[in-house]
Amino acid sequence: MRLAIVVLLIIAYSFVTGYIGYTVFSQIPLLIENRILLWTVAIGLVLSLIPVMFIGVTVRYQIPKPNTALFITNKSKNNIAFAGGLWVNTVIDTVREIPLNTIRIDIIGEGVLTHDFRRCDVDVSFYLRIFPDEDDINKAAQFFDDNQITSETMQMFFEPKLETILRSVVAECDTTDITQRRQKFIDKVHDTCNDNLKSQYGIILEYIHINKVNQNPDDLRGD
Questions:
Q1: Which of 90, 101, 210, 211 has its Cβ near the most Cβ atoms within 10 Å?
Q2: DSSP state at residue 64
Q3: pTM, two decimal places
Q4: Among residues 87, 76, 128, 137, which one has the least CA distance to residue 107?
Q5: Are the beta carbons of 70 and 98 closer than 8 angstroms?
Q6: Where are the beta strands (DSSP E) in 46-185?
């Protein structure tokens, strides 16, 4: 829609200036005599200023904020800026801010079954981040589509995936691996989901923190 408006303005401007130019050059003696040429030149200058003013209003040089990348899309291509600024046409370009800071997601697995058939509640924090790389930024922007990337949207999109991974890793570990050998457990969760997050969504898992592990009473043992 915005591109169509620009095209119509250019056509209208070309038509007006062409008509005025034809009139001026075909009747120069008469125009000089009637002082119309002066007014025609003045009008032409005013009309020439219109596209200049239009470009000045619509084209801007934008610099991303700290820990933020700009994802600029239009009909033909995508542009990404995180180390410097880019010229942006506000009529045909759509600009989105992509955060590059670390975002925390809390996952609580309730009644997770371990390898030794005990159930426990595991409260884990995942610290995610989009690495300042064009390929990763593009993947993340495409995945989130028109949604803003915030801690809330991160939680909404990744909570089911991370909880599934958490449950699968817990199912391979004994209770002592989770309660006493936590670093080994953390490394296993990290290795399981890190490659998947980066290859599909352009997101790296910086680190994991186990907030709490509650072992359920023995009478909740599985068969």
A1: 210
A2: P
A3: 0.69
A4: 128
A5: yes
A6: 59-62, 68-73, 78-81, 86-89, 94-99, 103-113, 119-130
Q: Which two structure tokens, joined as six digits, stand for 202?
A: 């352009």
Nearest to 188 by CA among 211, 166, 212: 166
Condensed to tens digits (0 to 9), the pLDDT of residues 117-149 reads 888 889 999 999 998 888 999 999 989 988 889
pLDDT tens-digit series, residues 29-62: 555 555 555 555 566 666 666 666 656 566 778 8
Give the DSSP letter of residue 94: E
Q: Which two tokens mark 28?
A: 């120069």
In 3D space, the residue among 121, 109, 117 whose CA is nearest the CA of residue 218 turns out to be: 117
Instruction: Work out the angle between the directed axes of helices 151-170 and 134-144 (0-180°, nearest 10).
Output: 100
Q: Can you read off the two tokens belonging to residue 147?
A: 């949604």
| Residue linked to tokens 């993947």 | 139
